[in-house]
Amino acid sequence: MRGSTPDWEAATTRVLDAADSTKSVSAAARDSTKELQKALDESTISAKQTVEQLIAWKVHKTRQLQRRLEQCLGESQRMHKRLAEVKEKVEVFVSGPLANALKVARMRAAQRAKRPSRERINDKVQTALEQELQQLGHTQEITTQYTADLNAHMFQLAQIVASLNADLQDKNRAVELDAACLGVSANKGTTGVPVAVTTGEEEAADDDEDIESAPSLHPGNEADRQWVAETMSLIESASTAMKDCEGVIAKIKTDVEKRVTGMDAAARASTEALNTKIKNTAKLQLQLNNKLRQLGEEKKSLDGQIADTKTALEDTKEPLAVVEKRLALRQQRPAKEDILDSVSVALSEEKNKLQQRVSSLTTTLEQLEEQKKSLMELADAMKQEVHEKSIAFRIDQGCLQPTEAEAALAITTGTSGKTKSAIIAALKPQPPPPPASNTGAGGLGGSSRNHRQGRKGGNKGAATHRYRQPTQSSSQAGAISYPVISTTQSGNRLPVLAKGPITARY
Fold first, then answer.
1. What average pLDDT does the chain have?
2. Distance CA 52, CA 59 (A)
3. pLDDT above 80 for 268
4. Which terminus of the chain is more exposed, N or C, with fewer CB under 10 A?
């Protein structure tokens, strides 16, 4: 059986006191938990805000770097295109004007090497050609080196473009993922909250900021600085490479322009020297031909004098024979009659005079024949001189054919104020003067009969000669085809072109 009422009440009181105590402890624990939860919430919120700020900073910096990379990548690609264009122009210059100029200069040097030995002198034409060949050869070496340099810069720039493009792709993916992180919620996953888009002015303002600065929330974190520094180092390398490319392009442009001017001057110098040489050769040919004509007239006179002397010698032999026969007959007289009378004295004097005349005429004839021999030898030497100068003239004239002259002036067309046809027409040399005739009244090869006919009837007809002016012929190897030039030897008239080519070999 239970105790009395007071004990029963005391037990209930103790239960109530225990409940109150438990309640107080629970309230204290609850209050403490609330304070702790509040503190934890504040810390979590602060950490979340820090993370979001850092992500926003990373997105901001990544976009800054993206813009820098895109700008640098565009400039690098444009520079690579410029290098390719400059290389193409250099290659066109090498394969076009430079190759044509070299072809013409080498052709001229090869043609002039075929001149006769006495004509192969180190004249102004040869000096100009050698200087032109040396200049063109050096230009060829330099432009070849320029092509190699451009290839090296293009390869280096291509590697930089590839690195920039790879870094930009990484940045694009990274900014996409970091932007997505800002829209992630703990309970709902990705909320799709859009990332703020900056305007052009804001982007320009952002680009003016110190892009290599680290976030102020974590000033001690060097990884962010290193991350920015790596991209900026790549951009700086690209900028340095582009500056080098700019310098190379400017150098090549300036040097090639100077070399084109030098090629123009060298080509004109050699062409002018050739024209001068052709004119001088033609002048010497004319002088030689005139002198040959004078020698021909002199030979004609000598032939006449020799004929007259021979006639006089023949005319003297008959009287001498008469005198000798008379003397022989008178020697047959009887002894008393064989005296040195006036008849014998007269016959002896006549014989002496006739013998002296024969001796004098014989000596004169020998002198005239010797003089004729010397004159013929001189004429032959002059003919050989004319022949060699004619070959040299044709060779030099062949160096100025229209096709080669046009190729030589390919780099200067339009700079002289003349058209190609006008320039080529101006470069064409004058035709050679006609050589002296070797037959007929004025020739050195005429016989005494021709001489006598010339003396009687005069020069009834002028001799007609045909000369040849060289032109390139591709149909015959080693041959040169010349248009026929017909001239009439009448004073110093210049030849005129006749129809129909003929072919000759040196």
1. 74
2. 10
3. yes
4. N
